[in-house]
Amino acid sequence: MSTQNLETIAAAFLGYIPHMRECGLSLVRGSPEGVELRMPFREDWVGDPIRGVLHTGPITVLVDSASGFAVLAATPVPETIATLDLRMDYLRPALRDKDLHCRAECFRLTSQIAFVRATVWQDDREQPVAISQSAFMRSSTGKPWKPEARA
After folding, report:
1. Highest mean pLDDT, choosing among 3-7, 8-12, 17-21, 61-65
2. Which residue numbers delimit the Thioesterase domain (predicted)?
3. Which comes out higher in pLDDT, residue 22 or 2?
4. Three-state secondary structure call for residue 93
5. Residue 58 confidence (pLDDT) above 80
6. pLDDT at 151
């Protein structure tokens, strides 16, 4: 998929799904080899106010979104997908006042399943907050994914 097509799909993908819009997800970079999404910090995501640690829920949303988008980026024509399995390993706390970044790559694409690895970090990609491995079901209809207009 070309970079221009990927940016068009990203705008539709990130704008189509309400919780992605609400989270403020944005595409930092993307190619068929992988995507990077950014999620800006929000105070209401702090799960431990004493230590200033984010709740894991928003991190999971970021990973699932980036991983799904990595599948769309890896296919010649975007198609309908569904998360089958998402394993998260939380390696260190995500701290307040810092944006989250997620790099996801679709490392294997079969006719029915896509397999994705993802890494989440804040300031330093070499110090990940979480890692993930997931599987997505691919559409068997052969119809390309097209977002419907939303009001």
Report:
1. 61-65
2. 52-127
3. 22
4. coil
5. yes
6. 42
* The token pair that represents 77 in the structure block: 């024509």
pTM of the model: 0.87
Q: Please, how many CA atoms are within 13 Å of residue 117, restricted to the half-sphere of its CB?
A: 3
Q: Of the candidates 115, 30, 101, 17, which has an alpha carbon nearest to the alpha carbon of residue 59?
A: 101
Query: What does DSSP assign to residue 139?
Result: P
Tokens (6 digits) for 40: 């800006």
Residue 58 sits at the vertex; the CA angle it makes with 53 and 63, to the nearest 5 degrees, is 120
Half-sphere exposure of 12 (CA within 13 A, CB side): 15
Long-range contacts of 91-94 (CB under 8 A, 24+ apart): 91/128, 91/129, 91/130, 91/131, 92/127, 92/128, 92/129, 93/48, 93/51, 93/53, 93/54, 93/129, 94/53, 94/54, 94/59, 94/120, 94/122, 94/129, 94/130
Q: Are 133 and 105 in contact (CB under 8 A)?
A: no
Q: Would you state the structure tokens that stand for residue 44, as one six-digit string?
A: 């209401």
Locate 39 and state its tokens: 């999620």
Question: For residue 59, what are its two tokens?
Answer: 């991190």
For the chain, which domains are there?
3-138 (3.10.129.10)
